[in-house]
Amino acid sequence: MSRIFTQALTRLQLVIIIVIIVIAVVGGAIAALYRPTAPTLTPSPTPTPVITTPMPTTPPTTSPVVERILRVSFANVPYPDPAVGSDEASSNFLANVYDTLVYVTPNLTIIPWVTERWDVSSDGLIWTFYLRKGVKFHVTGREMIADDVYFSLLRLITIGEGYAYLLAPYVDMNKTKVIDQYTIQIVLKKPYGAFLWALLRLYIVDSELVKQHIKRPGPYGEWGDFGREWLMSGEKDAGSGPYMIKEYRRGEAMILQKYKDWWNAKAFAPNAPDTVIMYGFTDPSTIRTLMARRELEITDQWQPLENYEWMINNIKYVELAKLHGGQEFYLMLNSQKPPLDDIHVRKALAYAFDYETAIKQINPYEKRAITVAPSALLGWCAPPENITYDPQKAIEELKKSKYWGQFDKYPIDYWWVAEVPWEERVALLFKSNVEGLGVGLKVNVIKMPWLSVVEALSKVNTSPHIVSIFVQTDYPEVGSMLMNRYHSKTYGTWMQNEWLYNYQPQLDRMIEDAVATLNTQERYAKYCQVMNYIFNLYPSIYLYEHTTLKAYQAYYVDWPAAKGNAPYLILGLDLEYWRINVYPEKRAELLK
């Protein structure tokens, strides 16, 4: 009983305590409701304190980094193998992706590049190059060594395409050797006055990387396919130059990205492009549309004149670059196809063409070409005769030919390159001039895609009577154009359609002797003799010393060559050479 009573008492005490606490809390709250409000005190004015610690704020919005991009169009997508490509697009690609032993300054002086220096023997046959250290290849990160130079030279000469003709006749690979890791000795079979110029086209590949991708068996004996299939796939490059392959869209575009570990990165322009897209199309409406949308920065050089004029007149900030270099536009005459196998017919065609109209009405920016090579080249000389439009002289020459009176049996096929629309106008003018002589000559004007032209010119029997083609010099001497255009070593390439079999032994000897001459002035004198010999064979019609026209987005692209502040000779769209800057923020402003 007492225990139960005690527990009940304890519970009652606990309830009483809780009630007292609740009454106290409620009473306090009610009192607070009726408490008078304290007066607001206004402080006397004092200086605003300087806050030295950062106050919490909303993080600022960071503007996204805009990629510096440069998009350029060409007649075709580059051939990515440095032992294969030599056309304009390929040459531009190679000059940006691969390094060479030597380089050239804007004033046409040869300087060391991945070689620090060189020695040459008194007879001009033994050249020793000392490589700089620390040159890295894109894919493997390997350091370039003398073995890579040797391998690149062997590969180029063995494959025998692209720019091989500049070195193959001269380099003795049996005597050329690696001295040590950074020294290579290149031995020549005979003196070569333009040897250092030719080395501008020896693009050095990562030999270990290429060897990993050689397929056997192949056309090059123990070397299988020499890694050609892999390099041509464009999957990766094997270079060490300022740019590297990012993506290759076969038949559409080659996409390059800046190589941040390039050994000569200080040579980049301050705002050099991060990405370069090389498109392979020239369709005028496509080019016009892309330029208007600001989706193309520099056009190809093959647009109809009216397309250039439309762009510069209708698209704000688009300007026309007029680039003077070492290109010439030829009507190449196949000397093996009747009736062009008769020198009198070839000479007559030269007199029959209206050069003045071809410039004034078709390409007013061009300069008239009058002989075998452009006048801008070192060693150039004037021809024996300045040929002009003279229908009467043309007829007189035709009367001397063995085909007189039967020209209707020998129609002439004239091919023009489909990717260069204005070439059709040249072809139609030629047709009108020649058929207008009234002697039975007939000209068939035929539109041909570039790749079909390249394939057809590989054999004399598939080559047309006439094809119109621009040819670019490989180094700024006349000897380069002589070798490109008229030496038998370039038979089967797109650079010649003349097939001068009847004159070739003597012509080859003359060209080789001139190019081999070490004394500069003597070499130039021999160039002149060869030029005049070729001129008198009338193997080509010389039309334009080409002024390369390219429309470009001047508000976005700072391009010294377009302003006449840098040459457009030899290396074309070599971005380091051009010193191009791009400003994406300016493009962004226009696109708002």
Question: How would you describe what is shown here?
Answer:
The chain is an alpha+beta fold and 592 residues long. Among the domains are: 2-33; 99-240, Dipeptide-binding Protein, domain 1; 323-547, Dipeptide-binding Protein, domain 3 (Roll), CATH 3.10.105. 32% of the residues lie in helices and 18% in strands. It contains 18 helices and 18 strands. It has helices at 2-33, 88-97, 146-159, 195-198, 207-212, 228-233, 284-292, 305-314, 343-352, 355-362, 391-400, 423-435, 450-456, 478-486, 504-516, 520-535, 575-578, 584-591; strands spanning 69-74, 102-104, 110-112, 115-120, 126-131, 177-180, 183-187, 243-249, 253-258, 275-280, 318-333, 367-368, 412-417, 443-448, 466-472, 540-553, 557-558, 581-582. A 6-stranded mixed β-sheet has the order 12-16-11-15-13-14, with helices on both faces. A 4-stranded mixed β-sheet has the order 1-10-9-8, with helices on one face. It has a 4-stranded antiparallel β-sheet with strand order 4-5-7-6, with helices on one face. A hairpin with a 5-residue loop joins strand 2 (102-104) and strand 3 (110-112). Helix 9 (343-352) packs antiparallel against helix 11, helix 14 packs antiparallel against helix 15 and helix 15 packs antiparallel against helix 16 (520-535).
